Amino acid sequence: MQTFIFGHKNPDTDSVCASIALSYLMNEQGKNTIPKVLGHLNNETKFVLDYFKVKEPDYLNDTKVRIKDIKYNKKAFINENGSILNAFNFMQKQNITAIPLVDEKKLLTGFVTLKEIAKYLISGNKDIVDTSYENILKSVEGRAVLKFNDEISGNVMVASYQSKTFQDEVVVSNDDILIVGDRYKIIEYAIGAQVKLIVLTGNHIMPKRLVKKALKYKVNIIESKYNSLETANKVILSNKIKTINMNMKPFSINAKDYRTDFISLANKVGHTNYPVVNSKNEVLGLLKVTSCEDYTKQKVIMVDHNGLEQSAIGIEEAEVIQIIDHHNLSSIGTNVPINFRSMPVGCTCTIIYNMFLEEKVAIPKDIAGLMLSAILSDTLVFKSPTTTEEDIFVASKLAKIAKVNIDDYGYQMFKAGASLKGMTTREVIDQDFKSYSVGNQILGISQIMTLDIEEIEKNIQEYITKLDELTMGNYICSVLFITDVYKNGSYVVYNQKSEGIIQDAFNLKQVYEGVYIDNLVSRKKQMLPALLEVIEKKV
Questions:
Q1: Are 82 and 240 spatial neighbours (Cβ–Cβ below 8 Å)?
Q2: Number of separate domains in the chain
Q3: pLDDT tens digits, 485-514
């Protein structure tokens, strides 16, 4: 099973590059991992991937358990033209009480239960057969003597009369199927009347002269090892299973449906079994309600975060096997011990660089470029207070492998990421927005890098309105920090009710929308701790 590696929602350069780099490292060790992203990439990250010619990871919507993850019966379906007897035997073998019916293209055409088979055996019409020659042959475990028709339909007759009585009183035709023992005069009479099929019972052999006559009149013949009564019952059971199908459009579930949604459906509908289909309505198998607890969780590795609120939708349903992060511990919890690697450094990729060294795996140029970009982004080219000597050392090593000049490349990267051209107010806020639980309430912090504060200032009221809208839910405070990397400070825009929180958190004598705070660049070490300290006193 593949393991997904991803960073937090609203992915930044570190979370994306860390996912790609770690996936490369693990795959080089023989693992099967795929890097994923949980949202749209910002301009900076797009620049980085384009610069080093690395493909953007695919989007991951969620890690919730789906029907495909449940151990349902993938053999449990049968062709609608198969016999009732074959369907019954198959259901017994598979230990199921219902069976989806499919056509030649495996499309769902119906659904038959054991209860419906039993009802047919008790009160169904036993005088008519609509089936195939092959179905009858298999049902009576017989030997094919003559076959002129693939499809066999007609009235079932059992020759229990004396020969003369039968010939005098019974009229047979091409619409009849005759089940008879070694009464050759009756057989000869039936052949002359060109019945549809003769089933010779009791393990008898059809005389050659009668075979020759049947060949002339094109009468189908099968020899059965069973007596006439047993053969008659099996011929009835040779009817196509679709002839007793009462469920032309049964409730079905898609393999991509969520397990939780299926449980809700099953509680409402009350059925025991459900056909599993794909998007083309092709049947994949059968799911019993009792099997929905037997499932495989998606294996995941979290990088650059360790909190539920920042991770994939349904992360609580996934199997987290490893976490690599450089942030404070959050709300994540696991049922079993896992590999958790955390270091007080400025970037996740600094940790991953050391993992490459430990595993003695060479770092290719493109992966080195991604990891360097992540370090420069997270440390603001070493200006952030989160920067450590380890980050600087690792960056210098990676720059040599990637063959770039740190200052020149860093400026290009931030310039590309600082552009807000074509972005809506909400897109600007969302591109690096993180939420944090504070009691029963939520603190929202968005941080963007720009070299052009005027773009924000001329639309500042729109930003305030959007932040106000955010706090209509459980948010106690929503803040947008616009960080100027080269000025080494941040402008602050906030929802209107948070003015006092902003003033107290950053010890401001005067506070207003768009206020500039010098040396404020780190969300992790400066913005978040200051805001949490004030908010925790209020909740």
A1: yes
A2: 3
A3: 878 899 999 999 999 999 999 999 999 999
Query: Both 100 and 46 in a single domain?
Result: no
Q: What is the C-alpha to C-alpha distance for residues 370 and 415, in angstroms, rounded to an integer?
A: 17
C-alpha pair distances (Å), 11 with each of 106, 366, 386, 399, 414: 41, 19, 19, 23, 16
CA angle 490, 491, 493 (to 5 degrees): 135
- Residue 73 belongs to some domain of the structure: no
Question: Helices 389-402 and 406-418 meet at what angle, rounded to 10?
Answer: 100
Range of the domain at 21: 3-64+298-417
Q: Could you count the other beta carbons within 10 Å of the beta carbon of residue 47?
A: 20
**Residue 403 and residue 418 in contact, taking contact as beta carbons nearer than 8 Å:** no
Predicted local confidence at residue 335, as pLDDT: 73
Choose the weakest-confidence range: 54-63, 87-96, 308-317.
Answer: 308-317
531 near 442, Cβ under 8 Å? Answer: no
Task: Indicate whether 282 belongs to any domain.
Answer: no
CATH number of the CATH domain containing 172: 3.40.1390.20
Give the H/E segment covering residue 91. helix 84-94
Last residue of a domain, one of 358, 383, 417: 417
Tokens of 435: 């939420």
Asked if residue 121 is part of any domain, the answer here is yes
The whole-number pLDDT of residue 455 equals 78
Yes or no: say if 482 and 450 are a contact pair by the CB < 8 Å rule.
Answer: yes
Backbone dihedral region of 458: left (phi > 0), alpha (psi from -120 to 50 degrees) or beta?
A: alpha
Examine the pLDDT at 421 and tell me if it is beyond 80. Answer: no
- What tens digit of pLDDT does each residue of 174-200 get? 999 999 998 888 999 899 999 999 999
Those residues whose C-beta lies under 8 Å from the C-beta of residue 473, and which sit 6 or more positions away, are 442
How many Cβ atoms sit within 10 Å of the Cβ of residue 331? 12
Range in 5-9, 16-20, 115-119, 125-129 with the lowest mean pLDDT = 125-129
Predicted pLDDT at 95: 93
